[in-house]
Amino acid sequence: MIDILRTVREKLKYLPARLFNFHNDGDNKDIFIFTSPRSGSTWLMELIASQDNIKYVNEPLHINRHKGLLTDINPNWVEIYSGQDRKRKFCNFFNRIISEELFVGQQKFKEIHKGQFDYFTNRRVFKILRGKDLINVFEEKFEIQVVYLLRHPIAVALSLMKEDLEDRVNHFLANKDYKEQFLHDDLIEFSRSILKNGSRFEIKILQWCLENLPSLKFLNNKNWIVISYEEMVVEEEKILRELYKELELENLDKLYSQVKIPSRTTDEKNQKFINDSTNEIINKEFLIKKWDNVVSQIQKEKAFAILDEFGIDIYQLGQFTINKKSEFFIN
């Protein structure tokens, strides 16, 4: 009975997306944003969705999207991160969304009330925080453009700790396919040691590594658009123009207008600081460096010792932005 009620609730929640949005796929590919939690993905999704022809699909792999009887994916993190047959289930799930059979994570009544509802669209932008090990699978299955968004692991770790979000390390270590493809025995033992003996901070750094290891070290990234949160903050205009060009978006002015609107997950204090135009340059630098005084030098060294163990060099000790000479860009 509970599942039936949840199903009805979810169908009612996204009823506007089903009834009032008229979607006909255009010539351009749907956009799949892949990233880690607390990396600026809501901001990026809303930027892209500011285009009149693009509708958003927000966190389709969040467990809340699978409560009730709408999908065959169990609404728990074990299923999302390490469930058997997750590849087939995920592909079937995304196919149902793309074929306009299933409506989750999309426009609701509040968009109509605010006058922000997109009635006619021909493209989608997906924000996906899980399943990065399957990016190439999704590329083979669907006609998509991948945008891979990165943020400094220390900044992500601190944000996760602040939000008190559950550790996911155990889920990666329970995924047989993940371990066979991306980890050797020494890394598995190293990860278990950190999980058992490390601080909360070190465990969050480890989680960032496990989340991003497949995409940074193993997958084919030649067709991806790669940007960082730090670039979005400090080089805002440059990134907007690159997104406009590379994603073949329709309206550059809409992008410029949208950056003045805080995302639904932006901290109010940070947004007030950003909007103080008299200190714009200083503010932007502050936003990407503000964690630097929160952690000790020893913590920074421990964090990068974990990255080194995984052979990840996309961020380096003492640097706040991505390493353009990383092996990731050579592969």
From TrEMBL:
The keyword Transferase applies. SUPFAM superfamilies: P-loop containing nucleoside triphosphate hydrolases. Keywords: Transferase. One of its GO terms (molecular function) is transferase activity. It comes from the Bacteria. Pfam families: Sulfotransfer_3 (PF13469). This is Sulfotransferase family protein. The lineage of its organism: Bacteria, Bacillati, Bacillota, Clostridia, Halanaerobiales.
